[in-house]
């Protein structure tokens, strides 16, 4: 029982780190053409940290629907245009679908990107200082 309680205590101690998915609550951000989220995020010690994430590492395009999707090295912004921030959690962009029609769509990047001590992370890719 003691070992199980210790394991539970360790797991609970890790929760704040694991629960940090969803960067928008601790970062202010903007879109910078052609492919970057630029953010000022709060670090664990409360200090601000400015960083920039290459979103081609995080977002792709569903070729059938033309919608943005979370995808490791998806390179969405090589083929999408007119991208901008929409609210505090979404990117909105226009892309081509399978039928070569323009499709305007949103992706909630807050569901896929996290703030880990001031750095933005998606699919194992850490942002750069800015």
From TrEMBL:
Where on the tree of life does the source sit, at the highest rank? Answer: Eukaryota
Please provide the record's keywords in A-Z order.
Answer: Signal
Which Pfam families does this UniProt record tie to the protein?
CVNH
**What residue stretch is flagged as signal peptide?**
1-21
Q: What is this protein called?
A: Cyanovirin-N domain-containing protein
Keyword Lipid biosynthesis included in the entry's annotation: no
What sequence ranges are listed for the domain Cyanovirin-N?
23-120
Is Zinc-finger there in the keyword field?
no
């Amino acid at each position: 029982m003691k070992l199980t309680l210790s394991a539970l205590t360790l797991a609970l101690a890790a929760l704040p780190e694991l629960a940090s998915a969803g960067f928008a609550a601790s970062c202010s951000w903007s879109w910078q053409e052609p492919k970057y989220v630029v953010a000022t995020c709060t670090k664990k010690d409360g200090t601000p940290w400015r960083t920039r994430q290459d979103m081609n590492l995080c977002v792709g395009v569903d070729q059938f629907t033309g919608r943005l999707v979370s995808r490791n090295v998806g390179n969405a912004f090589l083929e999408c245009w007119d991208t901008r921030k929409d609210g505090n959690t979404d990117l909105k962009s226009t892309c081509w679908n399978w039928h070569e029609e323009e499709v305007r769509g949103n992706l909630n990047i807050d569901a896929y990107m996290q703030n880990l001590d001031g750095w933005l992370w998606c699919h194992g890719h850490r942002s750069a200082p800015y």
